[in-house]
Design brief:
The protein is mainly α. The chain is 66% helix and 5% strand.
Length: 430
């Protein structure tokens, strides 16, 4: 089951209020660490913890003058703390606070996304065996290939979602890294023990080595995984859209009683949510590309990455979270027409059994090429004339030389194609 938290929880994670609150946590933790080392008075830390607070509007007002967000924040905090504020941010640089705080937020965002992703995985795992006997048409290039079962589609989506969970776990671990190593990462004014203490308290690891910033390959990895999750969502949504075409109509998004599909055509029921998901996946991929561009910075740092990340990281995490919520509801509520699936299998009048006929003839004819030409000629007649393929095979003089009527009948058994569905699905969801 998916826990009952709401979408605003993810959005609030990226609010100004939470951003500054996280900055303050980092600053206070740094003061605690320095006090443990005897570098600042314990009484000063007590005062800081008691009085430290901020006002977003006041920070904005100061930033309008100084044009520096961290300085504006520190100035506002100092206004509230008073004399003891001189111990705040000593030996640190802005990126120590920004990157460590960002790691906290990205870790939290990743965990919120993970919970929604796990909810989708659990739903698919439950659905797959339920449709292990739902015979449907397997299609390659959009053309009927051979029969399969709908449960196998669901099992494929499930296993890919499980892989995404593993990728996300790795990306969360990779991004959960802070640094308080100073202006160029060499701990000139802050001991590594301070960094170790702060990161441990915030649930992060300390970077093994850093410049003025945490290296951006970590952020690129995180957003690339988010984009891959978006790709899986798009893949599922695209399949549902394809199977909702009027000519196919094996799946349908749920359609509310008072919902309208078109301003012009009252009959329309469109897969609008799946189309929305497919479109938003493009945004996630674009943001991942921007994150890759952020890896290369000048020397020990520049800020070309900063403005980009203020957009792409909140947007990608909020979008991925939203998309998983919507995908879960689509999968849970969609109409699955197993009868239509079976009827679509029969549309091509037995052509889907051509490989079985080919294999049977190959065993008895002099060569595979001759067998292939014979079966293809019969298949093309069936395509062009709309004739029953089995009847054409049974009436072929050439085929009769090698196969008896009962042998031909046995080749047109649909259960042959679905006999291992249970085994495959069990293997996938174990």
């Amino acid at each position: 089951m998916i826990s009952r938290y709401t979408l605003p929880e993810m959005a609030s994670l990226w609010s100004d209020e939470n951003r500054f609150a996280t900055w303050l946590k980092v600053e206070i933790a740094a003061c605690e660490a320095r006090a443990k080392r005897g570098e600042i008075p314990l009484k000063a830390v007590a005062v800081i913890k008691k009085k430290a607070r901020f006002d977003v509007a006041r920070i904005d007002e100061i930033e309008a003058r100084v044009n520096h967000d961290v300085i504006a924040f520190l100035t506002n905090v100092a206004e509230n703390v008073g004399e003891e504020s001189k111990y705040i941010h000593v030996g640190l640089t802005s990126s120590d606070i920004l990157d460590t705080s960002l790691a906290c937020q990205m870790k939290q965002a990743g965990l919120l996304i993970r919970e929604r992703l796990k909810g989708v995985a659990d739903l698919l795992r439950e659905m797959a065996p339920r449709y292990k006997d739902a015979v449907c048409m397997g299609r390659t290039h959009g053309v009927h290939a051979e029969p399969t079962v709908f449960g196998l589609k669901l099992a494929v989506w499930y296993t890919e979602t499980v892989r995404n969970l593993r990728r996300l776990d790795a990306a969360i671990d990779d991004i959960a890294v802070g640094k308080l190593s100073g202006a160029v990462g060499n701990f000139v004014n802050t001991d590594p023990e301070v960094e170790e203490y702060v990161c441990k308290k915030l649930g992060l690891k300390a970077a093994e080595v850093s410049t003025q910033v945490v290296q951006r390959d970590r952020h690129a990895h995180f957003l690339a995984v988010i984009a891959i999750i978006g790709g899986t969502i798009e893949k599922i949504a695209t399949e549902i859209r394809g199977l909702q075409k009027t000519e196919v109509l094996e799946l349908e998004e749920s359609f509310a009683r008072e919902q309208k599909g078109s301003s012009a055509m009252p009959h329309k029921k469109n897969p609008i949510t799946c189309e929305r998901l497919a479109g938003l996946a493009r945004v996630l991929r674009g943001n991942a590309l921007a994150a890759l561009e952020n890896i290369a910075l000048w020397h020990e740092r520049d800020i070309t990455h900063s403005s980009v990340e203020r957009v792409i990281i909140p947007d990608s995490t909020i979008l991925a979270h939203y998309m998983l919520v919507k995908l879960h509801s689509v999968l849970r509520d969609m109409k699955i027409d197993t009868g239509r699936m079976r009827r679509n299998v029969e549309l091509t009048r037995g052509l889907i059994f051509s490989q079985r006929v080919l294999l049977a003839l190959t065993e008895k004819m002099p060569g595979r090429e001759e067998a292939y030409k014979l079966v293809q000629d019969l298949a093309m007649k069936s395509w062009d004339r709309g004739a029953d393929f089995k009847k054409l095979v049974k009436s072929s003089v050439e085929v009769k030389k090698f196969l008896k009527s009962k042998e031909i009948d046995s080749l047109f058994d649909i259960a042959y194609y679905t006999r291992r569905a249970d085994e495959i699905i069990d293997r996938a969801i174990q």
